Amino acid sequence: MAIKPDTGTSEWLLRAVGIVIALTLCGLVLLASGAMPLDAFALILEGAFGSSAKLAYVMTAWIPVLLCSAGLLLTFEAGLWNIGIEGQVVMGAVSATGVMLALQNTLPPAAVLVLAALAAISGGALWALLVGVLKLYGRVNEIFGGLGLNFIASSLTVYLVLGPWKRPGIASTSGTQPFPPPLWLPAFKGFNVSPIEVLLGLIAIAFVFAGLRGTHFGLRLKAIGKNLRSAFLMGISTHRSILLAFGLCGALAGLAGWVLVVGTSARHNLFPLVSSGYGFLAILVVLLANLSPVWSTPISFFFASITMGSLQLALQRQLDSSLGGVIQGMLVISILVTEGLRSTRFGRGR
Amino acid sequence: MRVELKNITKHFGSICANDDVSLCVEPGTVHGLLGENGAGKSTLMKVLSGFISADRGEIILDDNVVQMISPARAIDLGVGMLHQDPLDFPALSVLSNFLLGSHSGLVPDVGRARRELRQLADQFDFHLDPDVRVSDLSISERQQLEIIRLLWLGVRVLILDEPTTAISAQQKAKLFGALRMMAEQGKTIIFVSHKLDEVEELSSQVTVLAAGKVTGVVVMPCPTNRLVQMMFGKTVALTKRQPAPLGEPVLQMDGVMVRDWRMEMKGLCLEVRAGEVIGLAGLEGSGQRLMLQACGGLERPLAGRVCIGGNDMKGKPYRSFLEAGVAYMAAGRLEEGLIAGLTLTEHVALAERSRSFLIDWNSTLRKTVGLIGEFNIKGDPAMRVEELSGGNQQRTLLALLPRHLKLLLLEHPTRGLDVESVESIWGLLLERTRLGTAIIFISSDLDELLDRCDRILVFFSGRVAPPFDARKVSVEQLGELIGGKGF
Amino acid sequence: MDTVVLISSVLAASPPIIFAVMGETITEKAGIINLSIDGSILLTAMVAFVAALKTGSTLVGFAVGMIAGALVALIIAFVSLTLHQPQVAVGFVLTLLCRDMAYVFGNPYAHVPGPQVSHTPVPGLVKLPVVGPILFDQDFLVYLSLLAVVLIWAYMFKMHPGLKLQGLGERPEAAFARGVDVTRMRYIYTVVGGALIGLGGASFSLMVKPGWARPYGIEGTGWIVLAIVIFGGWRPMRAAVGAYLFVALQTLANTLQSIMPYVPTQLFPTLPFPLMILTLLLVTVGNAEWVNRALGHLPNNPRRALVRTLKTLQSSPPAGLGTIFKKE
Is A185 at the interface with chain B, CB within 8 A? Predict the structure, then answer.
């Protein structure tokens, strides 16, 4: 059977095969760690969708991942590896918490929430700009700059949680004093997810989609990603565009940090590991979606459900919740492999 | 060793690079392979030296049919190729380059290699320091290293692919002397070029290729116009430059000092007026690129002044130069000009440098179609630029330039292009000079410099001679200046 | 703290980092980036420990660790060399995947005591003053790590295959023209590098930090290894210096903490990271244009001295690093 290059159906067939293989491998992993695969998958599904509360948790995880994915689409377009996104989410959460702790008794809740959001956006953007500056003026690869800043951000969080922002009485790594309900995002009746969160996430991804296709900024990022030198010679202000990409990604990541603190089903406080690996998860999502904004939306939801669902595995079967991570990692690897097979065996790639 | 290529055919997709080509070279001779860019010379030699495998045909060395499965195998069989950009290792030393890939065993005998390097180099009067990094050598020295390395490995057939592109007249003389000596020693030399005079000077026999086919095999001497006929099938008339009236000064350079990791140039002075064409001549790496980049704002002077249209550009970034009406076209079309992966339309949108937020794709598409027609680009708006031929890529770059330019700076504008493209590109450039644009360009083609320029500056080792009138100097004089005479 | 004891402890804790740094230096010299180190060190540590626990033999543990590291590297090599996918992408995904696999499979073995490498002082030489306790009163792995650095240096700079490795990383097309099978060699060096990384991971769980836990405690070390390779300028000797400096810093951190209890505990473990950024900055900033311009304004003598210092610190990667090699 001759497979024509770039035919829609053959591409999807190949990807489907890849996903099936990935799931089979996951099944093997599950067997090896002492679980029945179908049982485990069922548990994950139940853990994600079993009740409206659980679904709310999934959506609470989905939105930050979606926001980060939107931001990463910008940096990936410019050929940048913004591994520092975790730290940017953390700094968003830190900035938001800081503002809320300072103003919660002096201003009405709505104002506090808005100011906290602005602080989060600025905090995240600034943290990302640091990575950009280190890259452009210090020639430090953004992977290392980002990593270093991730660690600094998380240490800062630990310091704050155990130090100046500790709970009255006992300093505990479970986090700061949780904020009262007025400082939570308002939710639907009976379903603990705020429409504000969901709207923000969807608007972000829609903007990024439109921006990449229809704005000069988006086209410049694409040019920079493909050939930095030529883009520069054509008169594109490469430094400005790269910094803007970092800043926007950081802003979206910071906003994700805000959602993680004030979202209806969130924990409502600052704690170490507040970013919960969502930044890195977003990188996986974007890779799996092959840098497509349209696909990033459902895939981020899918991954969020796996992450939440696999918590059940730890609770009910004494399996490590990292199994969710294994499933997600396997899926992305499978896509990388099938992409590779497609472009090397079946003709021209993207 | 006698080399015979029989019925070599090679396709790249739908393009036939070599169409039933046969070639025969006797040992102890220099055989010229002549043809314009794209005629198939490089492809044929890559087949002979093991880099590519032919679709059909045979390679016969000394009456034995051989299979050239890799370059290393070709060297084992005695066939070595010197590439235009020698395939060496810039970060490693001369000696390491010499040793790498040889039959030296697990722990190479460094002392012996040094001695033999020295012996071979002395034989041809080459001067190579074994401990210098190859990146610090000139192209000519890198060629010399590669030649003696191949000889050390025992090649009996040496193929040289356009070796004189970036070397001086003196270095060329030394190279030709070495080649003649090697031929006398019984080696077989195949000399690939599109430069008629060199092929005439060196070869005893010439094979001419055009559009993938052999159009003639002649014994030298042979009248030039017959060779030209075989290369092009027609004689191409060169348009003579009409001197245009010159306008206001567009560029004023005063006491400029620039420096890069290789050299430092001081006291650069130049005044260029609207409509003028200035040529920068010299061996590659003599400083002309550095000066051109200073004119274009890509290199910041450490002293002195650069004025564009009367405005002092001190301390201003590249983008200010663009806004002041300067444009810079680098030599690498896909490396430093166009962006592979983007379409023509996308390039047009980028080149607008629009301040608006959204892209109006409809108007951009219309503009692209217009430019394609105006600049005679063989391609359509949705095509990616890497799919265009070299000449069309160059035309695209010119099409992307702003309508009105004060100063156009070009590095090697017609390098690697066939005669027809060269003519059309110069047509477009001269049109701009009639509208008042001044042009400064770098070229290694002496004829191009003498035919197109009003004035020429010659560079040698970081020093520059004062500009002289192009009409008042001959090819030989220019060649000598480039080679360093008078500096 | 007694200097001799300090140096001795640094050496004792060094083998995992040394092996990993040597392994990645080789891999990157050949032109491939193995970004999965952070995850593979965890995975190989866990696997080595479990294997040693099950068989009672540390030797089996090391072997299994090396095989695991080699397999992960093989995946990276395959996906990037044969499938032409970006190395950074596959490396990043693998770093997360390996870590998660380590946690999942290591779960039952956390906090379980197991076999360790035993102390092997060299008889006689131990008695030498100063050098004795530092160099000859160590575990077998330390001797092996020192040997590894020397052997790898000798291979790269004194032997023909090592010269070819340098050429391979520098300019793959030219290496190909000289008879080097670029793709095959890149596969081999990546897998060898992976095995060394596996040896490093095993050295953690079987010697330096015996056992397994979740989290294990060395999370983040793999990223430092990558930074050390850059700091080392892709040369074994200099990379080893970087590795020892890092281990020294970690060792000192524990002592400094006891001297300065008022400094928050979070500061010391994170100290390597801003320092890493700082060193990377120093090592690559010489390339930056504004630096060169600023230097240009200085009078000649201080400028030349600064330029020389920057040049010695500077590292430029093998030009072929991360690039795809296509034959025709």
Answer: no
